[in-house]
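Sat 14:20. Reprocessing the chain from the morning session after the first attempt stalled halfway. Input below, unchanged.
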Amino acid sequence: MPNKLLASIDIGSYSCILLIAAFEKQESGQEKLVPKLQKVEVCRLGEDIFEFKSISNDKLNELVTIMERFRSTIHALGVELEAVAMTEAMRKASNSESVISAVEKALWFKPKVISGEEEAALTYKAISEWYHSDLLTLDIGGGSTELSFGKKSISIPVGALYLFKKMGAIPGPEYKNFIKETFKEFPVRAFSKKEVVFIGGTATALAMVYLNLNQFKYEQIEGLEMNLNDLEQTTMRISNLSKELRALLPGLENGRSDVIICGLYWLKSLLERLHVESFKISTAGIRFGLLYPSSLSEESHEIK
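Finished this time. Tokens:
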């Protein structure tokens, strides 16, 4: 009998992701959540938050269309939708209730706006199930960044899209002071000198450029190890290209070429502040964490 297919949706500040997966027994006897289908659609909700503090009608209509496509896929495959999470954009949107209502009508399922700490816990759950528990998850999204080490977590309201809107495609001299003030308000010392697993859209794009992958292949990306020198060389390679040529690089389609450099600058700043020389990349994320039983009810503690 085939394993039951489950679905979850992550509605982020930059993109929306549909995951269809199943728990499969491994040779070790343990069950692993294995992705069967993943669909990514760019929505860039964070742009509206940065400019208007709310979601515009145009963005909302675009989001609803994406959700209707996701619903069609889910129903066509006969999959059960387990959870829908909304993150930083909805945490800040002044009209979040109307957006939630519109998404519920499109999906026939009510989404939940989760806190930064819940987001961090879900990410950690997904990664620790695939690897082990003695690691730090680092999730750079469009509008926020979450770090989690077991029950310790922090959510920083800085992401790749946020930095792009604030500083442009390539951060200038003002970035140095911005970083100084950010880490003063959101210290990360409690998470330093640990094994880091980097996830999120910036992580996947970095891996695809580094490996020259023309298509997303999670088996090749999952567990990829990189160091600071690899990161700097890849960032330089991307930065030296024109906007038009950057958009032709693998993994940088659908507008991600606009925000990738900001995301990589921020990653380097975080790794240096954490005193970490190398990191792994994972394709997992909160959409995986959502499919584990009782993930959101597990206790987590915010570090301030």
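The chain is about 45% helix and 20% strand.
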